[in-house]
Specification:
The chain is an alpha+beta fold and 418 residues long. Strands 4-11-14-13-12-15 form a six-stranded antiparallel barrel. Helix 2 runs antiparallel to helix 3. The chain is rod-shaped.
Length: 418
């Protein structure tokens, strides 16, 4: 008896076709989800930086580099040109005010000094001759005045005598008139002599004043010439250290040419370069801080140089309290310059995420700590350590702050423990 076999419902060919269709549908679904940005990426926790959002004191600041400089620098310029004849010190020497640094020679200047001295001596000789002549002239006039005074006394005596005799009719009228005329003549002579003496005195005083003024001017010119010759010896204007001394024996230096400088060692200042973007926010009295040997030090701006060079401008800062031990000229300091007052704010540490997100979003860790997903945020000011969070995060949230270079458009990260 034949047994009827049941016919199979699905053949192998049909199963292959169905499997292909399912795979095609799965591929289409995968492509759709990928294009919608809903992909995930496995990330090892040890390869990322996770930080907690916190609320704390925030102050906007910027990092700037400062160079330690002497509190005062005095430039040494050649007040007079000449040839370098002698160097008394070398670069780096510590000097007291007035110590010689180098000596220049200038034959023309030294010859001018000799000529000026000769002119002064000649003028002094002429003054002495003039004064002797004026003195002799005055003596002669005084002698003449004495003679006139004596004649006046004699004429007055005769006039008074003849007046009495004439009244008694002892002498003739002619003798009386003669005595009177002689007396009047002597009085006029006396008046004229006094006038001459007065004018002579005035003239002598004027002449002496003119000569003395001329002599004083010549003496001033001589003193100026002596100072110019003395300036050929370059001396330290203050106590300090010679730096950048540029002079060698036999070298010629022009008037006004820079020879070097002296740094005053009584203190230090810091000169910092700042990006011109901040020029409107920098002012005198603004503070900054830096750390040296584990201790924090404060600086304040005392001068702002508004000239911009290569996109940067400079400020001078002074130490507010202590100066670090062992600090040296030319040393570089990393300074955090404050741009605002301290305030309470929501903060996240700075990290590489900002380069990819521009501060517009960040990966936030889920409550169970297994995943991280994108959240939109708004950042405000920043300093060297933190960003100020204006919206999108709350204190206690955990976020990934390391670089997002390898994440592409991934929307969610699956965090794997090693």
């Amino acid at each position: 008896m034949d047994i009827q076999l049941e016919k199979k419902r699905f053949s192998t060919q049909k199963l292959l076709i169905i499997g292909g269709i399912i795979l095609l549908i799965a591929l289409i679904v995968f492509v759709i989800f990928s294009s919608m940005g809903g992909s995930k990426l496995n990330v090892e926790k040890e390869r990322i930086s996770i930080n907690t959002v916190e609320k704390g004191v925030f102050q906007e600041n910027i990092p700037v580099n400062g160079i330690v400089m002497p509190i005062t620098t005095i430039y040494l310029d050649a007040l007079e040109g000449g040839r370098v004849e002698e160097k008394f010190v070398e670069d780096g020497a510590i000097l007291k005010k007035g110590d010689p640094i180098l000596r220049l020679s200038n034959t023309d200047l030294e010859l001018s000094l000799i000529n000026q001295e000769t002119q002064v001596y000649n003028l002094l000789t002429q003054m002495q001759i003039s004064q002797n002549a004026a003195r002799q002239n005055t003596i002669n006039k005084l002698n003449q005045n004495t003679d006139v005074e004596s004649g006046l006394i004699e004429a007055k005596r005769l006039y008074e005598l003849n007046s009495k005799l004439y009244e008694k009719k002892v002498i003739a009228r002619q003798d009386y008139i003669k005595a009177k005329n002689e007396y009047d003549y002597q009085k006029e002579r006396m008046q004229l002599s006094k006038q001459i003496l007065s004018e002579d005195s005035i003239a002598v005083k004027q002449e002496q004043s003119q000569v003395q003024n001329s002599y004083a001017r010549t003496q001033n010119a001589l003193e100026l010439m002596r100072r110019k010759v003395a300036d050929l010896v370059v001396k330290a204007p203050v106590d300090g250290q010679v730096t950048s001394l540029d002079a060698e024996i036999g070298q010629s230096k022009n008037k006004g040419e820079r020879l070097g400088q002296i740094d005053v060692l009584s203190g230090f200042k810091v000169r910092a370069d700042i990006d011109e973007h901040y020029i409107s926010r920098i002012y005198n009295g603004q503070t900054g801080k830096f750390t040296m040997s584990g201790k924090s030090y404060s600086l304040s701006i005392k001068k702002v140089y508004t000239q911009v060079t290569n996109g940067r401008f400079q400020v001078d800062m002074q130490f507010e309290e202590d100066i670090p031990d062992g600090i040296r000229r030319g040393q570089t300091l990393q300074i955090r310059l404050a741009l605002s007052d301290e305030k309470q704010a929501v903060l996240i540490p700075k990290g590489g995420f900002f380069q990819q997100t521009g501060g517009n979003w960040i990966f936030k860790i889920s409550e169970n700590g297994d995943t991280a997903y994108k959240v939109d945020i708004t950042l405000g000011s920043q300093n060297t350590e933190y960003y100020e969070v204006l919206s999108g995060l709350q204190p206690g949230d955990k976020v990934i702050t390391s670089s997002y270079d390898n994440y592409g458009d991934v929307q969610e990260l699956v965090l794997k423990s090693p």
